[in-house]
Amino acid sequence: MNSKERMNEIGDLRMKSRLGGGQKRIDKHHEKGRMTARERIELFLDKDSFEEFDSFRTHRCTEFGMSEKKILGDAVVTGYGTIEGRTVYIFAHDFTAFGGSLSKVLCEKVEKIMELAEKNGAPIVGLYDSGGARIQEGIDSLAGVSDVFLRNVMMSGVVPQISIIFGPCAGAAVYSPALTDFIVMVRNNSFMFLTGPKVVKTVTHEDVTTEQLGGADVHATKSGLIHHAAPSEADALAYVKKLISHLPQNNMESPPFIETEDSSDRLDEYLNDIIPDSPTETYDMKEVIIRTIDDGEFVEIQAEFAPNIIIGFARYGGRSVGIVANQPKYLAGVLDINSSIKGARFIRFCDCFNIPLVTFTDVPGFLPGTQQEYAGVIRNGAKMIYAYAEATVPKICVITRKAYGGAYCVMSSKHLRGDINYAWPTAEIAVMGEKGAVEILHGKEAKDTSDPKEFLKEKEENYKNIFLSPYPAAQKGYIDDIIDPARTRFRIIKALGLLKNKRDTNPMKKHGNIPL
């Protein structure tokens, strides 16, 4: 057989590989309103940029008649391409082939791509659509999955790892995406759980649907496992492309700088009046964020989980930043277990990948009560302290209103190595609010007066005048400046420019012991 004949034969095999489980299964997949693995890759990457590896590999299983059932590529498409010219490595489970189930060979293909991503310093994106471990292979399948877990851990903090769940992701297979930096699911189309509804029914006698057990809405609002629930497959891919645009290729690089026509000295007078006169009234911190960032473009993370804290990516003067902000609209912006976990993990991700942190603070404290205390609010709240204290990236904080007690310390305070700390004139920085403080300081004394209520009211006013302002903190150097709210954008951009060459280190150690 000459070279041309050989290439024709290879071409035929390549075409067969691209059909995965065959046209009938592809048609069935389309009937459910779902794209194939290759269609997802084509939509995700720059046109004609995808280069595929290992398209001819097949499984090695001989049990249960599997030696007669071989599909080229073996249920996963792997390779690399570009997004806006930047290299991205990718693997996509092919549900038309063995239901996307995970064989040893499939895992070896994924490992190869992960190794290339790590060596060449580029993000890796996994498109999941798999029924889990391939039962016919037994322990070989579990060995392969475990090898992938190890790669996930070793690559953590080296290159960004992102998972998009398009269909089922069950059993041991869920732990690979759980080890990655970000997970996106598709509403009404994808699900993640360790044990399915039938097993749950048998063991716990609970009647639960697939969607109720592990659908996108459940993980977006209750478990906090995922970072975004998209309405469609196309929306999930578009969201991840936006996300990647804010990230560096690896931990040795800085995030990409994007020129903007949004002026750095743009004022926003509305911010001067956004804080209500009454300390018990709310406002939307997201509006503060949107009005100060470049072009109002904010990529929010975990928007539906623990909404009392806001996290996400934006740019100031073209520089990518991670934003952490209390949200007064929900639980008055109080910190609790879920918000602490959400904030801490995001802070640590930003620190891994050289992304500066901008914090907006309006926090009355930690959520009180037995439910929080018994569930470990101290341990989980400490995660926020650990994350901010450990972070060596530039840290800028703006206190807009309340910063009380331990929660003041937690939110990127000067005492946790905050670099530039600003306060608006409306800031209230104290151990606690006036009512609680006066009750402790003057409660007994008030009982001996003719009008205890009037006495306490007068003391509360005195306390507010002395402590509930930014001036005592500024006098002690804990606040670098009290700024005009309308100039917040300008001051943040100037601070980022000042800190662009910041160098900070932590003591030499194998790793710390974050309170998990």
| Separation of the first and last Cα atoms | 62 Å
Give the structural class: alpha/beta
- Rg over CA atoms: 27 Å
Number-wise, the strands total 17
CATH topology of the largest domain: 2-enoyl-CoA Hydratase, Chain A, domain 1
Largest sheet descriptor: 8 strands, mixed
CATH class group of the largest domain: Alpha Beta
The CATH homologous superfamily of the largest domain is called 2-enoyl-CoA Hydratase, Chain A, domain 1
Question: What is the averaged pLDDT score?
Answer: 92
Described by the principal axes of the CA atoms, the overall outline is: elongated
What is the percent of helical residues? Answer: 25-40%
Q: Return residue spans where pLDDT drops below 50 for at least 5 consecutive residues.
A: none
CATH architecture of the largest domain: Alpha-Beta Complex
Strand content: 15-25%
Counting structural domains, the number is: 3
Task: Give a written overview of the molecule.
The chain is of the alpha/beta class and 516 residues long. The chain contains 19 helices and 17 strands. Strands 10, 11, 12, 13, 14, 15, 16 and 17 form an eight-stranded mixed sheet that branches. Strands 1-2-3-4-5-7-9 form a seven-stranded mixed sheet, with helices on both faces. Helix 5 (139-155) links the parallel strand 4 (124-128) and strand 5.
